[in-house]
Design goal:
Layout lengths: L1 H11 L7 H12 L20 H13 L7 H16 L4
Helix pairs in contact: 1-3, 2-4, 3-4
Length: 91
């Protein structure tokens, strides 16, 4: 339920409010230790991420595994960074 609430709020954030540079810093600081960049370059047919909503869902899911209390802005920024640099999904 908590994850669903995060997703609903995250999906409603305007794209312009998200900061990819900040997302990169957050990703490198909190995600990069376990989650290497190449994972985002795998075969699209095998990826769980097909839409921007899927990407945001994965960011929320994976963020929960770090034990760090990410804010909605944090999650949006990480999703924006990943979308701009790897996924390039339509908004």
């Amino acid at each position: 339920m908590k994850r669903l609430a995060f997703l609903l709020v995250l999906a409603s954030l305007p794209a312009a409010a998200q900061d990819a540079q900040r997302g990169k810093l957050l990703y490198e600081t909190h995600c990069g230790g376990c989650h290497y960049e190449r994972v985002h370059q795998r075969d699209r047919a095998k990826s769980r991420v097909k839409t921007l909503a899927d990407l945001r869902d994965e960011v929320v899911h994976r963020a929960g595994q770090t034990g760090r209390p990410f804010s909605l802005d944090d999650l949006g920024d990480v999703a924006e960074y990943l979308n701009r640099t790897h996924y390039r999904l339509a908004k």
